Amino acid sequence: MRIDIISIFPEYFTPLEVSLVGKARERGILDIRLHQLRDWTHDVHKTVDDTPYGGGPGMVMKPEVWGEAIDAVIAQGGPEGAGLPRMIVPTPSGRPFTQRVALEYAREPWLLFTPARYEGIDARVVDEYRSRLRVDEVSIGDYVLAGGEAAVLVIVETVARLLPGVIGNAQSVADDSFAPGPMENLLEGPVYTKPPVWRGHPVPEILLSGHHARIARWRRDQALRRTFEMRPDLIARLDPESLDERDREVLAECRERHEAAAFRAGPQSMAD
Ligand code: SAM
Question: Ligand 1 centroid vs 97 CA: distance in angstroms?
């Protein structure tokens, strides 16, 4: 996969030289190219921003410099047969970045990221490239970062570990929280390694039993309990058809415990 990133802080991306992503680059699975946006400015101060039309606080990134930069990167050409890149514009007002979106990106041969600073990029840039490329405005969460670089790191790392050959054991990707399949919308439960007892805390006995079917069932119970506790919104999204009798029993227990705790906490918490 080829990834181009245009930013005023290309040095922000040194983490992409280490660990899993770094190794994927060394092995030729990922070709990441960084570009300094200011290289496409024409003034002595290398200006990339200006005051917003209509007033208001902050500065807006100028369309001309982004246009020249994006055109130049596209003109360099991508991997053979890739056509044009899919352009990803990080913004808090974009569609949410999820594991499903990551899987979609992992199938692309060429991604182009345009992380912004200040109040973002002049909106005409997205309008312009929408007519020529597939453009996604993507948010990594309901909060506001100082710039899009950290969002790009999040997206690239998530996509990279889905590429064939990047993770030794493909099953570990299939078992992840949010992975499409029987565990979709369920968070992964707790995990353990040696020693069997640490500071008086034993590993759950079932995991030492070697009984694969029972271990799988125990893991699903734990995933249901953890999801109920941490992300009730995901429980509401579970497809009832995907739940077996034991799943329903576990969820009923969770609800009873939750209601009992709310009752003990008093009337205000019952209303929540
Ligand atoms: N005023 C903008 C708003 O409220 O939508 C926020 C601009 S933010 C300070 C600057 C840049 O950081 C954005 O243009 C975007 O590239 C990036 N950014 C900030 N939060 C983000 C998020 N949650 N997801 C993706 N990118 C984000």
Answer: 13
Atom of ligand 1 minimally distant from the CA of 141: 23
Is there a contact between 55 and 116 (Cβ–Cβ < 8 Å)?
Answer: no
Nearest atom within ligand 1 for CA of residue 140: 24
Q: What residue's CA is closest to ligand 1, atom 19? A: 145
**What residues does ligand 1 touch, defined as CB less than 6 Å away?**
90-93, 115-117, 119-120, 139-141, 143-148, 151
Active site residues: 92, 119, 161, 176
Q: Residue by residue, what is the 3-state secondary structure of the chain?
A: CEEEEEECCHHHHHHHHCHHHHHHHHCCCCEEEEEEHHHHCCCCCCCCEECCCCCCCCCEECHHHHHHHHHHHHHCCCCCCCCCCEEEEEEEEEEECCHHHHHHHHCCCEEEECCCCCCCECCHHHHHHHCCCEEEEEECCCCCCCCCHHHHHHHHHHHHCCCCCCCCCHHHHHCCCCCCCCCCCCCCCCCCCCCCEECCEECCHHHHCCCHHHHHHHHHHHHHHHHHHHCHHHHHCCCHHHCCHHHHHHHHHHHHHHHHHHHHHCHHHHHC
Please tell me the predicted confidence (pLDDT) of residue 269.
Answer: 62
Cα of 207 from ligand 1 centre, angstroms? 43
pLDDT digits (tens, 9 = 90+) for 177-216: 888 887 788 999 999 999 999 999 999 999 999 999 999 9
Tens of pLDDT, residue by residue over 30-56, are 999 999 999 999 999 999 999 999 999
Residue nearest atom 6 of ligand 1, based on CA coordinates? 119
Nearest ligand 1 atom to the CA of 138 is 25
